[in-house]
Amino acid sequence: MEPVDLALCLDAASCRLCNDRNGTRMLRLSVDVGGTFTDLVLVDDGSGQRWMEKAPTTPGSAEGVMHGLKQLAARAQAKIEDIDLFVHGFTIATNAWITRTGADVLLLVTRGFRDILEVAHQRRPHIYSLTAQKPVPLVARSQVAEVSERIDAFGKIVEPLSSDEIERILAEIAARRPEAIAVSLLFSFANDTHERALAASIRERFPDIPIFLSCDVNPQIEEYPRANTSAASAYVGPPVARYTKALEDAVAKAGMYAKLVYMRSDGGVATPDSARQNPCAMLMSGPAGGVIAAVEAGRALGVENLVTLDIGGTSADIATISRGAAMLSRGRDVDGLPLRSPTLDITAISAGGGSIGRVDRGGALHVGPQSAGSVPGPACYGRGGTKPTLTDAALVLGYLDSKAFAGGIELSVEAAAQAIDQEVGGPLGRSTQDAALGMFAIANANMGEAIRTLAMERGYDLREFALLAFGGAGGLFGSFLVQDLGLRELIVPPTPGVFAAIGLQFADIRHHKQIPFPTQLANLDPAALSGILLAAENELREQLSRDGIATDRQRILFSADQRYQGQYHEINVVLADGSVSTLPDARGIAARFHEAHDLAYGYANPDATVEITNLRIDAIGVLDKPTLGQHGEAGNPQPAGTRDLFFEIGGAAHPTPIYLRDDIGPGSTVEGPAIIQQYDSTTVVLPGQVAEGVEHGFIRIKAA
């Protein structure tokens, strides 16, 4: 069989070649690589069937993905070459940044600015601390080289970049032989001539060294965030390139012809070449799938306001969905360093199934940030781990079934209890169960505080929000958090452990372009604005066409970063959706900004001067989506057994019924306390709560 080129056939459901090859069967694969487990989901569009698999993550390697893929294909009785679309989310870029295992980078800056990453800015997380330490830059000062050139704030060349200076830089690169190069020259967002000339010479002399220019990565005012974002792209670029190319080679060797796309931080997907061109856009690739799935779930259930809680083996990822839309951030800090790239507004804290409990010298109990990961894993895995984790705590409290755990791992209650006694119970003088409940209480408090802070910063009233909990451990903590925070209800999806992987299949192709446009609205030239946006639109539509997206499936969104004159921070305001012809005039643009400012800060000043700093154009290629599916029939579920559970420190064990998730259909109810058990996750229903099965296989848990 000759390979079918799907490069121009991303909408495979309507492709004659795909349908000729597979008959009427359209198979979609999504893979979400987490810190502990790799989640795989295969969907047959024709029959609506789904198959899922969980495999231990192999950090930095495609081996875990391929191992899980072979098991999944066998379970579905499908051939790997029959898969049409492969959507992949991963944490390679994030891990390289946080663990400081990225590339050897050379950063080129304007002469006099070698200390740009060291000086950083004047913000301090602890302003009264006399011993506070700045975050360590991704690129050391010794790896920063100065370039003799200068462009002023208005884009005028003050000191030209000479050919002799370019030769000097080339000689320095030859001596250093870095893995990647970042270029961030002063005011290149206003005039990129010097950056592009330097890059052209470097590419000609060193074609194998990737180069990342600030005028491409982040063409925006403020030299430090721009330099750090450019350096970050270079820092995580080689690890991302190595992983993605290794994965592509592995799936090709296995005979897969599917179109492969990668999840981006902004909730869209990118082709392999696009992902490698700007690897910073992949930093939040892992948790983005869960937020996209949550938007679809909220739409299906008629719930507009959601807090999403994705708890895996290493972290708890929290996001908000307001009025049916996921929040998008244009910049954020990662490990204390600024990143200016569109990302879904996700907050991560160290509270996963592998988070380790410990008692400090003062006798205080802590959970995280250290994690046992997948190797050696929690003590109960029996793989050499000796530290007590939240998984161990859940096991000794009766929340988990030792013989029905994801990944086929048989858990050891004895090993979990021994680790908790030694590291927590003994030092605190508490029983095994009380120590485990203490670990749960600390983790719940940490997650609750993160949710409260997120809601407070955005002006939300948590009483108007439901909690959508997923991930392998989401159902273990969700009921506690709903009770503690006063949220309306807990919603648990039908397959919580692979919900983020399912969400990858609801993503669309996205491209983003940012253009500096420093202009006061009072002086706005509508023709100039329309011309710039139209040129950008045409460029992005060409990219979508190269991705195989038909014109009628292309959507363009125009927005602008705006502020009052004299302000330091901007608010992104949508200008038009679909066509430049629908742009409002200057007065309309100002009105939208005043409204957004009032919503964000509680006040607006219609008499103040408003200015635009940047224009942003988002191009979306709409892909076909799978259905959420249906689940079972209404009935009267019966317990499959009972287990002793512990809910209160010092309290007695509760003989608690255990229900199988497959037995809970629409209209079925289960009164707490109860455990709802399934292959990929476990849900705890507390005393005084009632769980009800609803459409699409979801469960909604509320106070009785």
Automatic annotation (TrEMBL):
Domain Hydantoinase A/oxoprolinase: 226-512
Listed GO MF terms: 5-oxoprolinase (ATP-hydrolyzing) activity
Acetophenone carboxylase-like C-terminal domain location: 539-690
Source taxon at top rank: Bacteria
UniProt domain Hydantoinase/oxoprolinase N-terminal: residue ranges: 28-205
A Gene Ontology BP annotation from the UniProt entry: glutathione metabolic process
GO cellular component: a single term: cytosol
InterPro entries membership: ACX-like_C (IPR049517), Hydant_A_N (IPR008040), Hydantoinase_A (IPR002821), Oxoprolinase-like (IPR045079)
PANTHER family with a match to the protein in the record: 5-OXOPROLINASE RELATED, HYPOTHETICAL 5-OXOPROLINASE (EUROFUNG)-RELATED
Name of protein: Hydantoinase/oxoprolinase family protein
Organism: Borborobacter arsenicus
